[in-house]
Amino acid sequence: MKLILFVKTFNSIKSEIIKSPKKNVVFLEGGFGVISTHCYSLPFIFNKKNTQVFWLVKSNFNPQEMIDLWQKRVDVSSINIFKVNFNFFNFNSKKILIFLWKKIAKKSNKNFYDIYDFDILFIKKYGIKKFELLERKNKNFHQEGYNFHNEKNIKKYHIFRSPFLSQIVKNEKSSEPLLKYNKGIEKKYFYLKSLKKVFFMLYVRKRNVPSLEGVARNGSGLINYLSTIKFLNKKGYVPLINGDFSKKDISILKKRKALFFDSSKLKLSDILFYQLSNRISKFVISEYGGGTCLPFTLKKRMLLLNFFPISNGYPNSLIFPKIYIKKKKSFKNIEELFQKKAFNEFIKNNEFRELDSKEICEASKEFYYEFLYKTKIYRNKVTRINSNFSSYLKTSKYSETYIKIQSKELSKK
Predict the structure, then answer these.
(1) Which long-range contacts (C-beta less than 8 Å, at least 24 apart) are formed by 386-390?
(2) How far apart (Å, rounded) are the C-alpha atoms in residues 89 and 404?
(3) Does 177 fall in a domain?
(4) Is 289 left (phi over 0), alpha (psi -120 to 50) or beta?
(5) Same domain? 221 vs 74
(6) What's the whole-model pTM score?
(7) Distances 328 to 322, 346, 351, 392 between C-alpha atoms, Å
(8) How far is it, in rounded angstroms, from Cα 388 to Cα 397?
(9) Domains in the chain: how many in total?
(10) Which DSSP helix (H) or strand (E) runs through 55?
(11) Nearest to residue 316, comparing CAs of 297, 341, 343?
């Protein structure tokens, strides 16, 4: 059965490549967030009229509805390649298909690009040289070329962040994208509007994952946001809760009389509820994960909590990373912490911890009173450290609450 699907898939895409008058053929894949970052960024390199994009879909990892969202910006088709994914002797069917489609594109006198080719093109055109040199030195990458930026190295956590930073900086300078929202959210959108409430998106991340990078992204859990939800409820704001949480978590929020919506209340799929949340929300409170990527392209103001690596961030954001726990041989101050740990991709020996409920609420109050409605942002010393994404952005900064808590931790004897 899979062999038959393999042949059908191959012939279908082969026909599209040959028949299309477009000269650029781009094959992309990646997680939930990569869909938003790369579909937003593609037009900065490729003209839509000349570029045919194929996205390799895995239902939960990069859902079809998220790809459809970007149809107005990018000519993108999806390939459910994982339905035909199998190993043939020592060869993987996905890699065989990509290899064959690449050959067909070349024979048709077309330019072929995969996600790594695109990243390299982007950094060559829009790269932040100062950050790139710091990252190369810190991670022992070769000083010439980009051969290290590939799937094999990423699987070994040999991760190159500079292309991502270049996309973020370009986004900050560019206009909000025009999106094609799923029709399934229209009625729910107008229903929420009729309630005369102000909504914000809350995205929490807490999941069992095998990868070290995935573990490093885990946050505090929904219940630790209860005080923040109650505080913002009093100010007239209602969270649309996305991400990782349980029925038990929701039950606790109800018992504590917190006002909120999740996908089950509106009878939407998680993906469509996520799209609705982004469309209607005034601002976003988010932990690190794919859920941060769409609101950053939409220029939403964000409170970023439990971020790791500690150097990462987005435009229009107040940044509050995970807290480094003081060790015997530790750092004198927060500047030295960033000098040594800014490029760490995952957490060793429980060096960093998630924020507790009180810290989350304090950060939320700072965000509400000192950031959300401010037209001018005071950029503190930590924000301007060269190893931090924020140093190259005009509209983000590190939380003063974070600096206070982290500095206090480092000063312990």
Answers:
(1) 386/130, 386/131, 386/134, 387/131, 387/134, 387/138, 387/311, 387/338, 387/339, 387/342, 387/343, 388/311, 388/313, 388/338, 388/342, 389/131, 389/165, 389/168, 389/311, 389/312, 389/313, 389/314, 390/313, 390/319
(2) 57
(3) no
(4) left
(5) no
(6) 0.95
(7) 19, 21, 12, 33
(8) 10
(9) 2
(10) strand 51-56
(11) 297
Tokens of 408: 């206090």
- Sign of the Cα torsion 84, 87, 92, 98 reads negative
Last residue of a domain, one of 115, 146, 172: 172
Q: Is the C-alpha dihedral spanning 316, 120, 122, 81 positive or negative?
A: negative
Nearest residue to 311 (alpha-carbon basis) of 281, 352, 268: 352
Q: Which two tokens stand for residue 317?
A: 């954001």
Q: What is the three-class DSSP state of 157?
A: coil
DSSP assignment of 289-353 equals SGGGHHHHHTT-EEEEEEESSTT---TTEEEEEPEEPP-SS--SSHHHHHHHHTT--S--TT-EE
Print the domain residue range for 259: 183-410
Which one-letter amino acid corresponds to residue 89?
F
Does residue 178 fall inside a structural domain? no
Question: Residues 228-265: pLDDT tens digits?
Answer: 999 999 999 999 999 999 999 999 999 999 999 999 99
What does DSSP assign to residue 261? B
Looking at the fold, whether 229 and 375 belong to one and the same domain comes out as: yes
* Same structural domain, 322 and 190: yes
pLDDT in tens, 284-320: 999 998 899 999 999 999 999 999 999 999 999 999 9
Same domain? For 145 and 214 the reply is: no
- Give backbone dihedrals phi and psi of 316, rounded to 5 degrees, phi first: 60, 35
Helix (H, G, I), strand (E, B) or coil at 229: helix
Instruction: State which amino acid sits at residue 261.
Output: F
